[in-house]
Amino acid sequence: MGRVTPVDTAYFAGERAGDFTVIGSPVQRSDARGHVTGRTVFFEDLTPPGLTHVKIHRSTRHHARIDRVDVSGAYEVPGVLRVITHEDVPNNWYVVLRLIGVGPDDEPVLAEDRVLYRGEPIVAVVAETEEAARDGAARVVVDYTDLPAVLDVEEALADGAPIIKQAGTNHFVYEGHHCRRVRLGDVERGFAQADHIIEGRYSSSPIEHAPVEPTGCVVVPQGDGRLRIHSNTQAAFFTLDNTALILGVPPTSLRVVGGTVGGGFGGKVDVIVEPLACIAAMLTGRPAKYVYSRAEEMQVSSTRAAERIVIKDGVMDDGRIVARQVTLYVDAGAYSRHSPYGATKAAAHMPGPYTIPNVHIDCYCVYTNRTPSSAMRGFGVTIGDFALESHMDHVARELGLDPLRLRLKNAYRDGDMKAHRKIASGTALVEVIQRAADLVGHDLPPEYRAMSSAERPEG
Amino acid sequence: MPSTIVTLTLNGTERELIARPSTTLLNALRETFGLMGAKRGCAQGGCGSCTVLLDGRPAVSCLIPVVTVGGSTVDTIEGLADGDRLTDVQQAFVDHFATQCGFCTPGMIMSATALLDRNPDPTRQDVTEAICGNVCRCTGYEPIITAVLSAAERRRDAPQSPATAGL
């Protein structure tokens, strides 16, 4: 089939080849035929003989000390093969990001003496059938002593807040600092120069990815002692390496078979189900399946982090932003997972695609007694963009300026210094706004039409 | 309660199974007959991934005890294509990029096939109503609706489509 979407060759004609053969042309998906015939193999389509099932007994408290765990009831259920507690996990404490050097390990595979969120896994039950595993998990008895819970990011950072993390603070520590910071120029001097100070406060709720295929895996012991992990993970090597670390085995003793993911959107990047399924398979010598129910998917799988963002801009009468101060709180929930990374991305992103001479950003990764948050489609920047661009519209309204012209005036161009002290290149934002204005019939005067991201004639 | 012998016509062939009272049609298809096309998504009737045709009508197989469908015809995604030859609906899904992760696709195609079998000239509204029980989290539905309307057009142009021949 030929090209169906015309490629706009008007911009940057001298800077790229014009012989695209794929862009603008339809190419059949390589997996489509398998999908429409039902032949694509998802992990749950694997039913090895002797398959066992793993179900979890979860915390019913937001924050509590565990006084006693009684698993005897589970063993009374016909078909229950084995109950797994933290004592069965070789290296119970982990953090997914340790693979890229981010620590400390802050999450137990199975809770030990404390739970930090409602739904935290405490005991796993392995059984012949799903019903028996579910029934066994339901019969585990846990005695708790409730502890004060912190459910709000700003409350978690307030003086006198109960400290819920072993590290001693309710925020992640970035190389000795309380938050991830970006500093350029002198923001107070910028505010002093500005004709207007315009502030905004923005917030978002946690968002569940809700993949149609629930998170899960099937682990099959091999004749040579290796474990073959059929998983719908989005991150096969995170799964391989983290599972090996948790099991205390070399990565070569595991084999991850993945690549078919029934919806993920970032929600299948964490390494949650595979280690327990592997332990179940090791303890029973039989294949093990651990898959979330829909309720678990909605209640305990990681969410996109809720964020609270405060933006303060110093703006001149003509719309130039001369100072921007941002305080951003990422609600990591009870455990790190990918949130320290998301908060770093948020900090780097919050100056926006604008050239602002004075920037001051504090981005906190905050722990609360809520469901852990983690990766989801552009996490750390999508909510930031919502806040930033809402704020740009707010600034435009306050000053009575056209919102597109405000953005063009502040858009960074090639050669500009970004707030992280990187020189901007390949920016193209000016041209994108101009083209978007054309497409929606938005009027732009000649001086805005003449702007280019490749040069800044006004200096 | 004792198990029951259930006889049904599955993808055109009479089949028999011994089922416990709690066995769902979905589990019977997957575990007894090895037909993995119908997917277990929510297992509570909410997502439509397990949709099959029961006596020609779309049904969520995760909610149906298989002992209740003795004597019925059941058609699954595996019964649609004639060898390597796709039905008009399947081909339209390929052509219009109506698949992404593929997990909802079998159920979605079964609902669309049932619609076109009873309504050869559906409106856009008819299509959206027909697939309203099938959740897709990837495509945003637009390519799927386009594919179904396109398949209807294709079927009107070529009424001897294998889709209807197989059911």
From TrEMBL, chain A:
InterPro entries: Ald_Oxase/Xan_DH_a/b, Ald_Oxase/Xan_DH_a/b_sf, Ald_Oxase/xanthine_DH-like, AldOxase/xan_DH_MoCoBD1, AldOxase/xan_DH_Mopterin-bd_sf
Molecular function terms from GO: iron ion binding; oxidoreductase activity
Family matches, as Pfam families: Ald_Xan_dh_C, MoCoBD_1
Lineage top rank: taxon: Bacteria
Protein keywords: Molybdenum, Oxidoreductase
Domain Aldehyde oxidase/xanthine dehydrogenase a/b hammerhead: 37-148
Residue ranges that the Swiss-Prot or TrEMBL entry lists as coiled coil: none
Name of the protein in its database record: CO/xanthine dehydrogenase Mo-binding subunit
Originating species: Nonomuraea rubra
From TrEMBL, chain B:
Keywords (A to Z) from UniProt: 2Fe-2S, Iron, Iron-sulfur, Metal-binding, Oxidoreductase
EC number: 1.2.7.4
Pfam family, one: Fer2_2
GO molecular function terms listed in the Swiss-Prot or TrEMBL record: 2 iron, 2 sulfur cluster binding; anaerobic carbon-monoxide dehydrogenase activity; metal ion binding
UniProt entry tagged with the keyword Secreted: no
2Fe-2S ferredoxin-type domain mapped to chain residues: 4-80
InterPro entries in the record: 2Fe-2S-bd, 2Fe-2S-bd_dom_sf, 2Fe-2S_ferredoxin-like_sf, 2Fe-2S_ferredoxin-type, 2Fe2S_fd_BS, Beta-grasp_dom_sf, Diverse_Oxidoreductases
SUPFAM superfamilies: 2Fe-2S ferredoxin-like, CO dehydrogenase ISP C-domain like
Keyword Oxidoreductase included in the entry's annotation: yes
Gene3D superfamilies assigned: 3.10.20.30, [2Fe-2S]-binding domain (1.10.150.120)
Record's protein name: Carbon-monoxide dehydrogenase small subunit
Lineage: Bacteria, Bacillati, Actinomycetota, Actinomycetes, Streptosporangiales
